[in-house]
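Below is a filled-in request sheet from our internal design queue. Each sheet records the structural input a requester submitted and the sequence that came back. We keep these sheets so that new team members can see what a complete request looks like end to end.

REQUESTER: design group, bay 2
PRIORITY: normal
MODE: inverse folding
CHAIN LENGTH: 86
BACKBONE (tokenized):
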């Protein structure tokens, strides 16, 4: 995947921190897709917290964790998955 910017990304860091603290993911990629301005992100996350949950419930869980960040974004793409290696 093409990296758009190597500059500091405080919004991306906040997203990473919130999701890491609450979901303890085995995989977490937070990618700024907006060219570095922090308005659009793609999040790929694998967590045992998603095991036995539908995709809809997984996405709702992420949205709830990021409820204070999402209003500041133009777009958000989520790819969530349970962690089979429990």
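RETURNED SEQUENCE:
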């Amino acid at each position: 995947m093409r990296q758009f910017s190597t500059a500091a990304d405080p919004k991306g860091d906040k997203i990473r921190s919130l999701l890491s603290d609450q979901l303890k993911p085995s995989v977490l990629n937070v990618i700024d897709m907006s060219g570095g301005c922090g308005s659009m992100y793609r999040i790929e996350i694998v967590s045992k917290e998603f095991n036995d949950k539908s995709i809809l419930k997984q996405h709702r869980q992420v949205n709830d964790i990021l409820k204070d960040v999402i209003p500041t974004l133009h777009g958000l793409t989520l790819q969530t998955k349970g962690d089979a290696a429990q």
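SHEET NOTES:
- Strands lie at 27-32, 40-47, 75-82.
- Residues 15 and 68 are 10 Å apart (CA to CA).
FILED BY: M.R.
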